[in-house]
Design a protein that fits this description.
By secondary structure, the chain is mainly α. The chain has helices spanning about 1-15, 15-20, 25-50, 55-85, 105-110, 115-125, 130-135, 140-155, 160-180, 185-200, 205, 210-230, 235-245, 245-255, 260-270, 275-290, 290-305, 315-325, 335-350, 365-390, 395-400.
Protein backbone atom coordinates (compact mmCIF):
# COMPACT_ATOMS: atom_id res chain seq x y z
CA UNK A 1 0.00 0.00 0.00
CA UNK A 2 2.78 2.44 0.89
CA UNK A 3 4.68 1.68 -2.31
CA UNK A 4 1.48 2.04 -4.34
CA UNK A 5 0.61 5.42 -2.82
CA UNK A 6 4.15 6.79 -3.29
CA UNK A 7 4.28 5.47 -6.87
CA UNK A 8 0.88 6.98 -7.61
CA UNK A 9 1.99 10.34 -6.23
CA UNK A 10 5.13 10.28 -8.38
CA UNK A 11 3.19 9.42 -11.52
CA UNK A 12 0.67 12.20 -10.82
CA UNK A 13 3.45 14.72 -10.20
CA UNK A 14 5.76 13.77 -13.07
CA UNK A 15 3.07 12.95 -15.63
CA UNK A 16 -0.18 14.71 -14.64
CA UNK A 17 -2.10 13.61 -17.73
CA UNK A 18 -1.21 9.99 -17.08
CA UNK A 19 -2.19 10.37 -13.44
CA UNK A 20 -5.62 11.74 -14.38
CA UNK A 21 -6.05 8.87 -16.87
CA UNK A 22 -5.47 6.35 -14.05
CA UNK A 23 -8.63 7.48 -12.21
CA UNK A 24 -10.64 4.41 -13.37
CA UNK A 25 -8.35 2.15 -11.32
CA UNK A 26 -9.37 3.85 -8.09
CA UNK A 27 -13.02 4.10 -9.15
CA UNK A 28 -13.16 0.42 -10.06
CA UNK A 29 -11.74 -0.70 -6.72
CA UNK A 30 -14.15 1.50 -4.73
CA UNK A 31 -17.05 0.12 -6.77
CA UNK A 32 -15.91 -3.44 -5.98
CA UNK A 33 -15.90 -2.71 -2.26
CA UNK A 34 -19.18 -0.76 -2.30
CA UNK A 35 -20.77 -3.70 -4.10
CA UNK A 36 -20.27 -5.96 -1.07
CA UNK A 37 -20.81 -3.44 1.76
CA UNK A 38 -24.61 -3.81 1.91
CA UNK A 39 -24.63 -7.64 2.01
CA UNK A 40 -21.71 -7.77 4.49
CA UNK A 41 -23.45 -5.36 6.87
CA UNK A 42 -26.80 -7.12 6.43
CA UNK A 43 -25.45 -10.62 7.07
CA UNK A 44 -23.28 -9.56 10.02
CA UNK A 45 -26.12 -7.81 11.81
CA UNK A 46 -28.82 -10.41 11.13
CA UNK A 47 -26.70 -13.37 12.27
CA UNK A 48 -25.36 -11.41 15.24
CA UNK A 49 -28.74 -10.30 16.58
CA UNK A 50 -30.45 -13.62 15.83
CA UNK A 51 -27.79 -15.37 17.89
CA UNK A 52 -28.33 -13.14 20.94
CA UNK A 53 -30.05 -14.83 23.84
CA UNK A 54 -30.97 -11.49 25.41
CA UNK A 55 -32.86 -9.31 22.92
CA UNK A 56 -32.90 -6.47 25.44
CA UNK A 57 -29.15 -6.24 24.87
CA UNK A 58 -29.74 -5.08 21.29
CA UNK A 59 -31.57 -1.96 22.42
CA UNK A 60 -29.02 -1.33 25.17
CA UNK A 61 -26.08 -1.57 22.75
CA UNK A 62 -27.81 0.70 20.22
CA UNK A 63 -28.68 3.25 22.91
CA UNK A 64 -25.15 3.34 24.30
CA UNK A 65 -23.65 3.60 20.83
CA UNK A 66 -25.91 6.49 19.82
CA UNK A 67 -25.19 8.26 23.11
CA UNK A 68 -21.46 7.91 22.54
CA UNK A 69 -21.82 9.13 18.93
CA UNK A 70 -23.76 12.21 20.05
CA UNK A 71 -21.20 13.19 22.67
CA UNK A 72 -18.13 12.65 20.48
CA UNK A 73 -19.66 14.27 17.39
CA UNK A 74 -20.66 17.35 19.37
CA UNK A 75 -17.20 17.50 20.92
CA UNK A 76 -15.60 17.33 17.46
CA UNK A 77 -17.81 20.19 16.23
CA UNK A 78 -16.85 22.28 19.25
CA UNK A 79 -13.15 21.53 18.73
CA UNK A 80 -13.37 22.78 15.14
CA UNK A 81 -15.18 25.91 16.31
CA UNK A 82 -12.65 26.66 19.05
CA UNK A 83 -9.62 26.14 16.79
CA UNK A 84 -11.19 28.26 14.06
CA UNK A 85 -11.63 31.15 16.50
CA UNK A 86 -8.13 30.81 17.94
CA UNK A 87 -6.10 30.29 14.75
CA UNK A 88 -8.35 32.30 12.38
CA UNK A 89 -6.95 30.73 9.18
CA UNK A 90 -9.20 32.82 6.93
CA UNK A 91 -8.31 36.20 8.42
CA UNK A 92 -6.78 38.59 5.90
CA UNK A 93 -7.93 36.60 2.86
CA UNK A 94 -9.99 39.58 1.71
CA UNK A 95 -12.41 37.77 -0.61
CA UNK A 96 -15.41 39.74 -1.86
CA UNK A 97 -18.57 37.61 -1.49
CA UNK A 98 -20.12 39.33 -4.52
CA UNK A 99 -17.21 38.26 -6.74
CA UNK A 100 -17.38 34.55 -5.87
CA UNK A 101 -18.60 32.13 -8.52
CA UNK A 102 -21.52 30.31 -6.92
CA UNK A 103 -21.82 28.11 -10.00
CA UNK A 104 -18.73 26.17 -8.97
CA UNK A 105 -20.51 24.77 -5.92
CA UNK A 106 -24.03 24.60 -7.35
CA UNK A 107 -23.85 20.83 -7.86
CA UNK A 108 -22.83 20.27 -4.22
CA UNK A 109 -25.64 22.48 -2.97
CA UNK A 110 -28.10 20.53 -5.11
CA UNK A 111 -26.86 17.26 -3.61
CA UNK A 112 -27.06 18.54 -0.03
CA UNK A 113 -29.39 16.23 1.88
CA UNK A 114 -32.62 17.27 3.55
CA UNK A 115 -31.74 19.09 6.76
CA UNK A 116 -35.03 18.32 8.51
CA UNK A 117 -35.12 15.64 11.19
CA UNK A 118 -38.43 14.29 9.85
CA UNK A 119 -37.09 13.88 6.32
CA UNK A 120 -33.98 12.14 7.59
CA UNK A 121 -35.95 9.69 9.77
CA UNK A 122 -38.44 8.85 7.02
CA UNK A 123 -35.58 8.15 4.62
CA UNK A 124 -34.37 5.35 6.91
CA UNK A 125 -37.46 3.30 5.95
CA UNK A 126 -36.92 1.87 2.43
CA UNK A 127 -39.58 1.80 -0.26
CA UNK A 128 -38.93 -1.93 -0.64
CA UNK A 129 -36.62 -4.62 0.72
CA UNK A 130 -34.78 -4.88 -2.58
CA UNK A 131 -34.55 -1.13 -3.10
CA UNK A 132 -32.34 -0.59 -0.04
CA UNK A 133 -29.72 -3.00 -1.42
CA UNK A 134 -30.02 -1.75 -4.99
CA UNK A 135 -29.39 1.85 -3.91
CA UNK A 136 -26.72 0.92 -1.38
CA UNK A 137 -28.41 3.00 1.33
CA UNK A 138 -26.56 1.84 4.45
CA UNK A 139 -29.09 3.18 6.96
CA UNK A 140 -31.94 1.41 5.18
CA UNK A 141 -29.96 -1.84 5.07
CA UNK A 142 -29.32 -1.44 8.81
CA UNK A 143 -33.05 -1.00 9.42
CA UNK A 144 -33.94 -4.17 7.49
CA UNK A 145 -31.14 -6.20 9.08
CA UNK A 146 -32.05 -5.25 12.65
CA UNK A 147 -35.74 -6.00 12.02
CA UNK A 148 -35.02 -9.40 10.45
CA UNK A 149 -32.50 -10.27 13.16
CA UNK A 150 -35.07 -9.55 15.86
CA UNK A 151 -37.68 -11.59 13.98
CA UNK A 152 -35.36 -14.59 13.61
CA UNK A 153 -34.47 -14.45 17.31
CA UNK A 154 -38.17 -14.58 18.22
CA UNK A 155 -39.01 -17.40 15.79
CA UNK A 156 -36.68 -19.79 17.61
CA UNK A 157 -35.89 -23.28 16.23
CA UNK A 158 -38.08 -22.71 13.16
CA UNK A 159 -35.67 -20.04 11.96
CA UNK A 160 -32.53 -22.18 12.49
CA UNK A 161 -32.23 -23.33 8.83
CA UNK A 162 -32.38 -19.74 7.57
CA UNK A 163 -29.88 -18.63 10.19
CA UNK A 164 -27.42 -21.37 9.14
CA UNK A 165 -27.84 -20.33 5.52
CA UNK A 166 -27.12 -16.68 6.37
CA UNK A 167 -24.05 -17.68 8.42
CA UNK A 168 -22.71 -19.66 5.46
CA UNK A 169 -23.40 -16.70 3.17
CA UNK A 170 -21.57 -14.43 5.62
CA UNK A 171 -18.46 -16.65 5.50
CA UNK A 172 -18.52 -16.62 1.69
CA UNK A 173 -19.03 -12.86 1.58
CA UNK A 174 -16.03 -12.16 3.82
CA UNK A 175 -13.96 -14.46 1.63
CA UNK A 176 -15.08 -12.41 -1.37
CA UNK A 177 -14.00 -9.24 0.45
CA UNK A 178 -10.58 -10.79 1.08
CA UNK A 179 -10.29 -11.53 -2.65
CA UNK A 180 -11.18 -7.96 -3.60
CA UNK A 181 -8.74 -6.54 -1.06
CA UNK A 182 -5.85 -8.06 -2.98
CA UNK A 183 -6.48 -5.32 -5.54
CA UNK A 184 -6.27 -2.57 -2.90
CA UNK A 185 -2.76 -1.37 -3.87
CA UNK A 186 -3.84 -1.04 -7.51
CA UNK A 187 -6.88 1.01 -6.51
CA UNK A 188 -4.84 3.21 -4.17
CA UNK A 189 -2.21 3.74 -6.89
CA UNK A 190 -4.79 4.92 -9.42
CA UNK A 191 -6.73 7.08 -6.96
CA UNK A 192 -3.65 8.88 -5.61
CA UNK A 193 -2.14 9.37 -9.08
CA UNK A 194 -5.39 11.04 -10.13
CA UNK A 195 -5.49 13.30 -7.06
CA UNK A 196 -1.97 14.64 -7.58
CA UNK A 197 -2.28 14.75 -11.37
CA UNK A 198 -5.63 16.57 -11.29
CA UNK A 199 -5.07 19.07 -8.49
CA UNK A 200 -1.28 19.20 -8.25
CA UNK A 201 0.90 19.58 -5.18
CA UNK A 202 0.94 23.36 -5.71
CA UNK A 203 -2.79 23.53 -5.01
CA UNK A 204 -1.98 23.09 -1.33
CA UNK A 205 -0.04 26.37 -1.29
CA UNK A 206 -3.15 28.45 -2.05
CA UNK A 207 -4.89 27.62 1.22
CA UNK A 208 -2.06 26.10 3.24
CA UNK A 209 -3.21 27.69 6.49
CA UNK A 210 -6.62 26.02 6.35
CA UNK A 211 -5.23 22.63 5.30
CA UNK A 212 -2.48 22.70 7.95
CA UNK A 213 -4.90 23.84 10.66
CA UNK A 214 -7.36 21.08 9.79
CA UNK A 215 -4.70 18.35 9.75
CA UNK A 216 -3.20 19.53 13.03
CA UNK A 217 -6.61 19.79 14.69
CA UNK A 218 -7.55 16.30 13.54
CA UNK A 219 -4.23 14.93 14.80
CA UNK A 220 -4.76 16.54 18.20
CA UNK A 221 -8.31 15.15 18.33
CA UNK A 222 -7.18 11.60 17.46
CA UNK A 223 -4.14 11.47 19.74
CA UNK A 224 -5.56 13.68 22.48
CA UNK A 225 -9.32 13.22 22.75
CA UNK A 226 -9.63 9.73 21.26
CA UNK A 227 -6.34 8.80 22.96
CA UNK A 228 -7.81 9.60 26.37
CA UNK A 229 -10.99 7.68 25.55
CA UNK A 230 -8.90 4.71 24.44
CA UNK A 231 -6.80 4.82 27.62
CA UNK A 232 -9.98 4.83 29.72
CA UNK A 233 -11.16 1.76 27.77
CA UNK A 234 -7.90 -0.08 28.45
CA UNK A 235 -5.94 0.20 25.20
CA UNK A 236 -3.48 2.48 23.43
CA UNK A 237 -4.54 4.62 20.49
CA UNK A 238 -1.08 4.04 19.00
CA UNK A 239 -1.55 0.26 19.17
CA UNK A 240 -4.94 0.65 17.47
CA UNK A 241 -3.44 2.74 14.67
CA UNK A 242 -0.66 0.17 14.20
CA UNK A 243 -3.22 -2.65 14.15
CA UNK A 244 -5.29 -0.90 11.46
CA UNK A 245 -2.32 0.35 9.44
CA UNK A 246 -3.30 -1.58 6.29
CA UNK A 247 -6.84 -0.22 6.37
CA UNK A 248 -5.61 3.31 7.10
CA UNK A 249 -3.35 3.27 4.05
CA UNK A 250 -6.30 2.05 2.00
CA UNK A 251 -8.43 4.95 3.29
CA UNK A 252 -5.58 7.38 2.55
CA UNK A 253 -5.11 6.11 -0.98
CA UNK A 254 -8.79 6.03 -1.94
CA UNK A 255 -9.83 9.08 0.13
CA UNK A 256 -12.84 7.09 1.35
CA UNK A 257 -13.41 5.43 4.71
CA UNK A 258 -16.15 3.35 3.10
CA UNK A 259 -13.54 1.40 1.12
CA UNK A 260 -12.26 -0.13 4.38
CA UNK A 261 -15.62 -0.75 6.10
CA UNK A 262 -15.74 -4.55 5.58
CA UNK A 263 -12.14 -5.03 6.70
CA UNK A 264 -12.65 -2.79 9.75
CA UNK A 265 -15.51 -5.03 10.87
CA UNK A 266 -13.33 -8.11 10.40
CA UNK A 267 -10.45 -6.51 12.30
CA UNK A 268 -12.65 -5.53 15.23
CA UNK A 269 -13.99 -9.08 15.52
CA UNK A 270 -10.44 -10.46 15.35
CA UNK A 271 -9.45 -8.10 18.19
CA UNK A 272 -12.08 -9.61 20.46
CA UNK A 273 -15.13 -7.38 19.93
CA UNK A 274 -18.39 -9.39 19.80
CA UNK A 275 -19.85 -9.85 16.33
CA UNK A 276 -23.29 -8.42 17.20
CA UNK A 277 -21.74 -5.24 18.64
CA UNK A 278 -19.42 -4.85 15.66
CA UNK A 279 -22.38 -5.28 13.33
CA UNK A 280 -24.40 -2.62 15.12
CA UNK A 281 -21.77 -0.03 16.05
CA UNK A 282 -19.44 0.15 13.03
CA UNK A 283 -22.01 0.57 10.20
CA UNK A 284 -24.12 2.95 12.32
CA UNK A 285 -21.02 4.96 13.14
CA UNK A 286 -20.40 5.53 9.44
CA UNK A 287 -23.53 7.71 9.45
CA UNK A 288 -23.64 9.06 13.01
CA UNK A 289 -20.03 9.19 14.20
CA UNK A 290 -18.06 11.30 11.71
CA UNK A 291 -15.52 13.07 13.89
CA UNK A 292 -13.33 14.25 11.02
CA UNK A 293 -16.29 15.57 9.04
CA UNK A 294 -17.59 17.44 12.10
CA UNK A 295 -14.23 19.13 12.75
CA UNK A 296 -14.07 20.10 9.08
CA UNK A 297 -17.59 21.53 8.98
CA UNK A 298 -17.20 24.11 11.76
CA UNK A 299 -13.58 24.93 10.88
CA UNK A 300 -14.37 25.39 7.17
CA UNK A 301 -17.47 27.46 7.96
CA UNK A 302 -15.43 29.84 10.11
CA UNK A 303 -12.71 30.01 7.44
CA UNK A 304 -15.25 31.07 4.80
CA UNK A 305 -16.74 33.66 7.14
CA UNK A 306 -13.31 35.07 8.02
CA UNK A 307 -12.13 35.01 4.40
CA UNK A 308 -15.16 37.03 3.29
CA UNK A 309 -14.81 39.53 6.15
CA UNK A 310 -17.85 38.29 8.11
CA UNK A 311 -17.52 38.25 11.89
CA UNK A 312 -19.91 35.76 13.43
CA UNK A 313 -21.31 36.53 16.86
CA UNK A 314 -21.43 33.85 19.53
CA UNK A 315 -25.15 33.40 18.93
CA UNK A 316 -24.55 32.93 15.20
CA UNK A 317 -21.81 30.40 15.95
CA UNK A 318 -24.18 28.59 18.30
CA UNK A 319 -26.73 28.42 15.45
CA UNK A 320 -24.01 27.11 13.14
CA UNK A 321 -23.14 24.43 15.70
CA UNK A 322 -26.76 23.36 16.11
CA UNK A 323 -27.40 23.10 12.37
CA UNK A 324 -24.15 21.18 11.85
CA UNK A 325 -25.19 18.67 14.53
CA UNK A 326 -28.27 17.83 12.46
CA UNK A 327 -26.85 18.04 8.94
CA UNK A 328 -23.83 15.88 9.77
CA UNK A 329 -26.03 12.89 10.67
CA UNK A 330 -26.49 10.47 7.82
CA UNK A 331 -23.54 11.71 5.77
CA UNK A 332 -22.02 8.85 3.83
CA UNK A 333 -18.37 7.89 4.20
CA UNK A 334 -17.60 8.50 0.54
CA UNK A 335 -15.41 11.03 -1.19
CA UNK A 336 -17.00 14.50 -1.29
CA UNK A 337 -19.66 13.77 1.35
CA UNK A 338 -18.08 16.29 3.76
CA UNK A 339 -18.30 19.04 1.14
CA UNK A 340 -21.93 18.20 0.41
CA UNK A 341 -22.76 18.23 4.13
CA UNK A 342 -21.03 21.60 4.47
CA UNK A 343 -23.25 22.90 1.68
CA UNK A 344 -26.31 21.63 3.55
CA UNK A 345 -25.19 23.45 6.70
CA UNK A 346 -24.41 26.79 5.04
CA UNK A 347 -27.70 26.65 3.11
CA UNK A 348 -29.52 26.88 6.45
CA UNK A 349 -27.17 29.39 8.13
CA UNK A 350 -27.73 32.76 6.37
CA UNK A 351 -24.71 34.46 7.96
CA UNK A 352 -22.12 32.61 5.85
CA UNK A 353 -22.39 32.77 2.03
CA UNK A 354 -22.68 29.36 0.38
CA UNK A 355 -20.77 30.76 -2.59
CA UNK A 356 -17.76 31.05 -0.28
CA UNK A 357 -17.33 27.30 -0.62
CA UNK A 358 -15.71 28.05 -3.98
CA UNK A 359 -12.71 29.31 -1.98
CA UNK A 360 -11.93 25.86 -0.59
CA UNK A 361 -13.10 23.72 -3.49
CA UNK A 362 -9.57 23.42 -4.88
CA UNK A 363 -8.10 21.92 -1.71
CA UNK A 364 -11.12 19.98 -0.46
CA UNK A 365 -9.78 16.79 -2.00
CA UNK A 366 -6.65 17.03 0.15
CA UNK A 367 -8.74 17.56 3.27
CA UNK A 368 -10.97 14.63 2.32
CA UNK A 369 -8.15 12.20 3.15
CA UNK A 370 -7.84 13.62 6.65
CA UNK A 371 -11.62 13.58 7.17
CA UNK A 372 -11.79 9.93 6.16
CA UNK A 373 -8.86 8.87 8.34
CA UNK A 374 -10.27 10.63 11.41
CA UNK A 375 -13.74 9.20 10.83
CA UNK A 376 -12.29 5.71 10.44
CA UNK A 377 -10.22 5.81 13.65
CA UNK A 378 -13.14 7.33 15.56
CA UNK A 379 -15.43 4.45 14.61
CA UNK A 380 -12.81 1.86 15.56
CA UNK A 381 -12.49 3.46 19.00
CA UNK A 382 -16.29 3.61 19.35
CA UNK A 383 -16.62 -0.12 18.62
CA UNK A 384 -14.09 -1.07 21.30
CA UNK A 385 -15.55 1.36 23.86
CA UNK A 386 -19.12 0.05 23.45
CA UNK A 387 -17.82 -3.55 23.54
CA UNK A 388 -15.99 -2.73 26.78
CA UNK A 389 -19.14 -1.18 28.27
CA UNK A 390 -21.06 -4.35 27.45
CA UNK A 391 -18.36 -6.53 28.99
CA UNK A 392 -18.31 -8.78 25.95
CA UNK A 393 -14.71 -8.42 24.77
CA UNK A 394 -12.68 -11.59 24.30
CA UNK A 395 -9.85 -10.63 26.65
CA UNK A 396 -7.43 -13.19 25.18
CA UNK A 397 -7.78 -11.85 21.63
CA UNK A 398 -7.83 -8.26 22.91
CA UNK A 399 -4.60 -8.76 24.87
CA UNK A 400 -2.94 -10.45 21.90
CA UNK A 401 -3.50 -7.32 19.80
CA UNK A 402 -3.23 -4.43 22.27
CA UNK A 403 -0.75 -5.85 24.79
CA UNK A 404 1.40 -8.26 22.82
CA UNK A 405 1.22 -6.36 19.52
CA UNK A 406 0.24 -9.41 17.45
CA UNK A 407 -1.35 -7.47 14.61
CA UNK A 408 -1.42 -10.17 11.98
CA UNK A 409 -0.88 -9.56 8.30
CA UNK A 410 -2.91 -8.48 5.30
CA UNK A 411 -5.60 -5.89 4.88
CA UNK A 412 -8.57 -7.98 5.92
CA UNK A 413 -9.11 -11.07 8.02
CA UNK A 414 -12.25 -13.14 7.33
CA UNK A 415 -14.62 -13.11 10.27
CA UNK A 416 -15.59 -16.77 9.80
CA UNK A 417 -13.01 -19.41 8.92
CA UNK A 418 -13.94 -22.32 6.66
CA UNK A 419 -12.87 -25.94 6.84
CA UNK A 420 -10.44 -25.32 3.98
CA UNK A 421 -8.44 -23.02 6.24
Amino acid sequence: MVVAIVAGGLVGYLAPETGVALKPLGDAFIKLVKMVIAPVVFLTIVTGIAGMADLGKVGRVAGRALGYFLVMSTFALVVGLVVGNLVRPGAGFGADPASLDAGKVADYVAKAHDGSVTGFLLDIIPESLVGAFAQGNLLQVLFIAIALGLALAQVGPAGAPLLRLLESASAAMFRLVAMFMRAAPIGAFGAFAFTIGKYGVDALANLAALVATFYLTSLIFVLGVLGLVARAAGFSIFRLIAYLRGELFLVLGTSSSESALPSLMARMEAAGCPKPIVGLVVPTGYSFNLDGTNIYMTLASLFIAQATGIELSWSQQALLLGVAMLSSKGAAGVTGAGFITLAATLSVVPSVPVAGMALILGVDRFMSECRSLTNFIGNAVACIVVSRWEGGIDEVAFARVFRDGDYGGGVVRPAVETDAD
